[in-house]
Design goal:
Blueprint lengths: L1 E10 L4 H17 L2 E9 L4 E9 L2 H12 L2 H7 L6 E9 L4
Antiparallel strand pairs: 1-3, 1-4, 2-3
Length: 98
C-alpha cells in the first residue's frame, strides 16, 4: 500500500521558471526520506505548480515520514536563502480511480 498526496501550489507572479529550476533538488531530498514524486506539472496559464508525492504505508506513516523530512537538515539546506514563491498551497490525500 502507498499513500499519495496531491499538492497544488498557486505561485507568486513571475517566479514559475525559478520554481521549476529549483524543484528537482527537493525531489532528491524527498527520495532520501522514502518519498516518490509521482508527477509534476507546471500550469503556466493558471500560474500553478501541481505535483503528487507518495510514500509506502498508510496516511499515518506518510505523516510520520513527512515530519522527519520536514525537520531534516537536507530540507533546511535546500530552502536556505530561497525567496517565498508560493502564494497558497492546496494539499490532499487522494485515492486512485479505475
Amino acid at each position: 500500500m502507498k499513500t499519495v498526496q496531491l499538492r497544488r501550489y498557486e505561485l507568486l507572479d513571475g517566479v514559475m521558471d525559478e520554481f521549476v529550476a529549483w524543484f528537482p533538488g527537493i525531489v532528491e531530498v524527498r527520495r532520501q526520506y522514502g518519498f516518490t514524486v509521482e508527477f509534476a506539472y507546471a500550469d503556466r496559464a493558471a500560474n500553478q505548480f501541481v505535483w503528487a508525492v507518495s510514500h509506502d504505508g498508510d496516511e499515518a506513516a506518510f505523516k510520520a515520514a513527512e515530519a522527519v523530512y520536514s525537520d531534516s537538515p537536507e530540507r533546511a539546506a535546500r530552502f536556505a536563502g530561497q525567496p517565498q514563491r508560493v502564494d497558497a498551497m492546496h494539499l490532499a490525500f487522494v485515492d486512485p480511480v479505475g
